Amino acid sequence: MNDDLLTVTDLTAGYGHTKVLRGISLRVGAAEAIGLLGPNGHGKTTLLRCVSNLHRATSGSVAYAGSDTRGRSPRDLVRRGLIHVPQGSRLFPQLTVAEALRLSAASSGHLATWRDGLDHVFTVFPRLKERRGQLTGTLSGGERQMVSLGMGLMARPTLLILDEPTLGLSPKVKHELSECILRIRAEVSSIILVDGDMELVLSLTDRYHVVLHGDIVHSGASDATVGRDAMMSLFLGGSADERR
């Protein structure tokens, strides 16, 4: 029996004549968190966008919950529990925290139970409860990122994709956010995490893949010590001028 929630097979993709992904294959099991590591510009974000159908792959396939995702809209995948929180907080600055969270519940088909979802988000992110009536445009960077993650939770994810959730945050706020992600891990079935902080990714995931030049060049268990030096070398290596 196949317990994989997500299966990516020989995926290629690019932008115009620029090839970014070069035949990537990976799987995410039910109740599993995986991390994607590697230098900027080597295809991690493009891979995530292809998984959530925000970018069309050139070839290969993506199967989610046992079904091929080709031909499905990103909105359909959201309603089936595949939730992508992209890099950078993309919020409507004129909405309050509570209104932004309610909007996410409505757009993902969970408006009827949005108050329950709100209570849950406030449990994971206590600071948002204090800010519930504040406009998102007036929040700090860390608080805006918490709202983005909270909106992901309001959509009731089965697979939660997080792209650079701690980018640009101070060490103190990064630690606070990582504790929140750890709480999310206990409740969400599966997670794909991309972040520039290698140690953070390894502390929050079960397995990792290093992506270099659009392909997976190294994989391992996140808690393994064997091969850590080689992985570090790959993580820091490579040029940063390729398209993501």
UniProtKB/TrEMBL annotation:
Output one GO BP term: L-amino acid transport
Q: Does the keyword Transport apply?
A: yes
A molecular-function term among this protein's GO annotations:
branched-chain amino acid transmembrane transporter activity
Q: What are the residue boundaries of the ABC transporter domain, all occurrences included?
A: 6-238
Q: Which UniProt keywords apply?
A: Amino-acid transport, ATP-binding, Nucleotide-binding, Transport
What span is annotated as the signal peptide, if there is one? none
Superkingdom classification of source = Bacteria
| CDD domains linked | ABC_TM1139_LivF_branched (cd03224)
| Record's keyword annotation contains ATP-binding | yes
Read off the InterPro entries from this record: AAA+_ATPase, ABC_transporter-like_ATP-bd, ABC_transporter-like_CS, BCAA_Transport_ATP-bd_LivF, P-loop_NTPase
The protein's matches in Pfam families, at most eight in alphabetical order, are given as: ABC_tran (PF00005)
Please report which protein family the annotation says this sequence is part of: Belongs to the ABC transporter superfamily.
Q: Which PANTHER family match?
A: HIGH-AFFINITY BRANCHED-CHAIN AMINO ACID TRANSPORT ATP-BINDING PROTEIN LIVF
Write the protein's name: ABC transporter ATP-binding protein
